[in-house]
Amino acid sequence: MADDAGQQDTKKNGAMPGRDSERDMLVKNRLRDGSLKLYELDRELSPIDAIRVRREYIEAETGTKMENVGIFSIDVERVVKRNCENMIGAVQVPVGVAGPVQVNGVHAQGSYWLPLATTEGALIASVNRGCSAITKAGGADVRIIHDGMTRAPVFATDSVAHAVQVCDWVKLHRDELKTLAESTTSHGKLSDIVTFIAGTSVYVRLEFDTKDAMGMNMVTIAGGKVADLIAQATGARLIALSGNMCTDKKPAAINGIMGRGRSVVAGIALTHELISTVFKTDARSIAEVNYRKNLVGSARAGATGFNAHAANVVAAMFIACGQDAAHAIDGSTCITTVDLTETGAYIAITLPSLPVGTVGGGTSVDTQQECLRLLGVAGSGTPPGTNARKFAEIIGTAVLAGELSLLGALAAQHLARAHQQLGRG
User: Fold this and answer.
1) 248 classed as catalytic
2) Dihedral (C-alpha) 35, 37, 43, 46: value to the nearest 10 degrees?
3) Which one of 173, 349, 362, 410 is at 20 to 30 Å from 7 when CA atoms are compared?
4) Catalytic status, residue 168
5) pTM of this structure
6) Which residues in the chain come in under a pLDDT of 50?
């Protein structure tokens, strides 16, 4: 029965080998002679047939069989329109769970299983150990301390004096710009405008409350309207809708200082006994590893983050839950702190930039949607924004679990042994 089910799945997605139909041969000939482009297949064939023919064409062109890429379970009707151009199939990333972990947040309150998509052996086992410690200690305290997605257009001005005039105009007309920006969206709200000058360049950093959406499309559209008005009113030339002061998909000090997306803090008080039992080490050793590795070592290296491996956990959660994987780099700006106490240690993480959403983008892909449902955050919350903030609090807890476990392993000199046991290829 299992074999039959697998064959049916394969047939469903057009991956079964067989001779080309006359239609397929005509289409492939047109691809070869250039009269038809790969992206145009979606206009001539059903989505599943377009994927199959495109894959078969690439196989023939490269001499590479892609039988496994052609096996998938997601519904492609929406994916090919909104998520992936020139689709030929899907790459499967193993998904495991860690937990359950107790979260004591404002929006996330309860026990959660964490879906983590990764090919790195030992990662989920490590997070799982951190989850155990957190739950035994009564749960992590988690809070959202800032919430705002940004877009920062850059303008060219004639002189330094002109640049200052542009900034003054933006400040004076804040309400007008807010009204214009919010006219482009039914959900987003412009929450802040900050200007920056570098010589004759002016950057206008716009920040939005995007509710349950991660919000990049929303703020880009709204930012375009705002930028056009600024240019018309001030005579500044709009150079680019993004001037890298946002900053998007790059580690940046401005995101660490001002925040971007959801800014999250999570902490846990661990007793001496719990540290000894779970991590086989002591509070003072964990504190010294954090000080010399995460703080001093990162500073000496010129890093923009001060943590053990926060982006590792962020990436695994992002891939499992349909987030923009490139934003996982924001996890690298995390700061991990360890305060020694009379009873043990208080360990905390600060994630200043966590661009996440529970609607839009990859959140609607079937497999990723299931992972969001596992966490109870799929779709829009009530009131809007609740689910995205709940999701951010859960990710913050997951990062804390990962930091706890790796710090413990390093302090106990267990890191190499764990990777030998769980991470060998």
Assistant:
1) no
2) 110
3) 362
4) no
5) 0.92
6) 1-12, 14-18, 424-425
